[in-house]
Specification:
Arc Repressor Mutant, subunit A; 12 helices; globular
C-alpha cells in the first residue's frame, strides 16, 4: 500500500469514517486499543525506541498480525498523536465579547502544554502543514471562538502562535525520571563571550516553566489587534 493510501486510510480512521475491511478472523483489539498500547510504550521509553514489534509484543501479537490494524509506524504515530492530544477542555464558550477572554486563552495554552507534559514524546512529533486531525482541529476551533470574543484582527495567527508556545515550552521541561543534564563548567563563559545578549537572558531563573509560559502568552495577547505584517516588513 503506497504512502498516499496509507495517509487516506489513517485520516478516515481518525475521522471515524468507513475504511475498507480486512479479510480474516475478527480482530482481537480495536485500533484505539492498539494506539493506547503504543502511547503507553512511548510514554515510558520515548518515541525513538518505539517499534511495531514492541507494540505487537505488548499486545501478545506478532508483528505481521499488527498490520491488520496499522500499515506503518508513521501511520501509528499519527494515531498516537491524535489520541495523546485528546479533546480540548471545556472553556468559557460565551460568544459575547468583553473582558476575560485573555484568561481563557491563557488557560487553553496551559491545558495544551499539560498534554505535552503528560506525553513527553509528543512535542517531538514533526508537524507538517495545517492540522487535519479532528482533535487538533477541535483545539484550534475552541481557541478561535475565544479569540473572536476579543475581536482579534487575525485570530488564526494568534492561535498558531499559542499552539507553538505550548509545544516549545513543554520541551523545556525534562521528562519525569530523566537524569539531570550536566552543563560543562566552561560553557556559560563561552556563551557569555560569544553571545552576551543571550547569556543575559539565560541567567534568569527558568525553574518555573509554567510561569514563563504564562508570561509569553500574556505578551502575545497584549496587542492582539496589532497588524504584524507591515511591522515585520518595515
Amino acid at each position: 500500500m503506497n504512502s498516499q493510501r496509507i495517509q487516506d486510510r489513517t485520516l478516515r480512521l481518525l475521522w471515524g469514517l468507513a475504511v475498507p475491511g480486512v479479510r480474516g478472523p475478527q480482530p482481537r483489539f480495536t485500533v484505539e486499543e492498539v494506539t493506547a498500547a503504543a502511547c503507553a510504550l512511548a510514554d515510558a521509553e520515548g518515541l525513538a525506541s518505539l517499534t511495531l514489534a514492541k507494540v505487537a509484543g505488548t499486545l501478545g501479537l506478532t508483528t505481521t498480525a499488527l498490520y491488520r490494524y496499522v500499515e506503518s509506524k508513521e501511520a501509528l504515530v499519527e494515531l498516537m498523536t491524535e489520541q495523546a492530544v485528546g479533546i480540548p477542555p471545556e472553556l468559557d464558550g460565551s460568544p459575547a465579547p468583553g473582558p476575560g477572554w485573555e484568561q481563557v486563552a491563557q488557560a487553553w495554552t496551559r491545558a495544551l502544554w499539560q498534554r505535552y507534559l503528560d506525553h513527553p514524546w509528543l512535542a517531538g512529533v514533526q508537524v507538517n502543514g495545517m492540522p487535519g486531525h479532528p482533535n487538533r482541529l477541535a483545539w484550534m476551533n475552541s481557541l478561535l471562538l475565544v479569540l473572536d470574543r476579543g475581536k482579534v484582527t487575525d485570530p488564526l495567527h494568534i492561535a498558531l502562535l499559542l499552539d507553538a508556545l505550548a509545544r516549545a515550552f513543554a520541551a523545556l521541561v525534562p521528562p519525569p525520571g530523566a537524569p539531570d543534564r550536566d552543563v560543562p563548567e566552561w560553557l556559560p563563559g563561552a556563551i557569555a563571550a560569544r553571545f552576551p545578549r543571550v547569556a543575559a537572558e539565560l541567567e534568569r531563573d527558568w525553574t518555573d516553566v509554567e510561569q514563563e509560559l504564562d508570561k509569553a502568552v500574556a505578551t502575545i495577547l497584549a496587542r492582539p489587534d496589532r497588524n504584524l505584517g507591515p511591522a515585520l516588513g518595515a
